[in-house]
Amino acid sequence: MVIANHPIIAKAHTNIALVKYWGKLDNQLIIPQNDSLSITLDEFYTQTAVEFLPSLTADEVIFDGQVLSDQASLRVRTFLNHVRDLAGIDYRAKVDTKNFVPTAAGLASSASGFAALAGAASRAAGLNLNRRDLSRLARLGSGSATRSIFGGFVAWQQGHDDATSFAYPIDEQPTWDIAVVALVLTAKQKKISSRVGMRLAVETSPFYSAWISASQADFKTVKTAIQNQDFELLGHTSEQNAMRMHALTLSSDPNFTYFNADSIKAMNMVKDLRLQGIPCYFTMDAGPNVKIICQGADAERIAQYFQTEFGEEQVLVTRPGSGISISD
Ligand code: 2P0
């Protein structure tokens, strides 16, 4: 194995889950409690350069031009240890990462971040992993990163150990016209991280077992909807799945929610649009921003409707994006 003698650059897009991951079976290996399914988004991505250098005595992590403190870079350095173990090397690395997400959109995600880091660091360390193994490696950084290795519609197979928990593509270049309208309702950092929130749900929500059985059924339904290009089935099931996930936060002890007043307003506006005959469905992750799944032909009209309420800059239209790319 030969480590690269120049920085390796990887680009990975973020993704939005239609069937959510919310809870781990194994907190170290990040083995989830259920299968999940997402769309990779073209507008939002992370680009990361990594070089392992014999001259370095410690890992150096630069994020959007700022050198991170030891505390802030802990997850990245822990991840680099996995790569060093895998490659059998001991060198420290220089990591330079940039998020390409519209200013303060609050959509930056550990998904694109750890996927890009997995791609750049593994190749810089001399490993030449296939995409399945890259998704397993990305998983050790963050669960949602597992899916960002692939483009279009992607599934993350739950599995039961490190070897069997990985992502695979369902439809990398969808031939039907799907779009996601992202509403930036706040760019504020969330109070309860996904990691803490999902652990609370597993440990305290009396609804957790119902979530697992419902989400496994949703996974099958959304897969069928993709195969049949059945937009309404895809949208309806995704919206139901999102609300089932958020019911876990409401039923955790202590209870909490990622909704704010604007999230609820936006969800009601989506329902109004449906009553007007425009098929569109909402989903939300571990924060107040709402994403609207729609057909490409309706995207601009839907975006305008929300721009009137929330402002032009707060509404972004995005489409299915590609999987990871890594320089030589
Ligand atoms: C998902 N989310 O499926 C779900 C839906 C947010 C809501 O995966 O602890 O940052 O690093 O594995 O992946 C966000 O959680 O959590 C997430 P870790 P992650 O996209």
Automatic annotation (TrEMBL):
Q: What are the UniProt keywords, alphabetically?
A: ATP-binding, Lipid biosynthesis, Lipid metabolism, Lyase, Nucleotide-binding
Coiled-coil-forming residues are none
EC number, UniProt record: 4.1.1.33
One GO cellular component this record assigns the protein to is: cytosol
* UniProt cross-references to Gene3D superfamilies, sorted A to Z: 3.30.230.10, GHMP kinase, C-terminal domain
Identify the residues that the record assigns to the Diphosphomevalonate decarboxylase-like N-terminal domain, covering every copy: 12-167
Pfam families assigned to the protein according to its UniProt record, in alphabetical order: MDD_C, MVD-like_N
Gene Ontology terms for molecular function: ATP binding; diphosphomevalonate decarboxylase activity
Q: Where is the Mvd1 C-terminal domain?
A: 180-314
- Which GO terms of type biological process are on file? isopentenyl diphosphate biosynthetic process, mevalonate pathway
Matching InterPro entries? GHMP_kinase_C_sf, Mev_decarb, Mev_diP_decarb, MVD-like_N, Mvd1_C, Ribosomal_Su5_D2-typ_SF, Ribsml_uS5_D2-typ_fold_subgr
| Record-stated family | Belongs to the diphosphomevalonate decarboxylase family.
Q: What is this protein called?
A: diphosphomevalonate decarboxylase
Its taxonomic path starts at: Bacteria, Bacillati, Bacillota, Bacilli, Lactobacillales
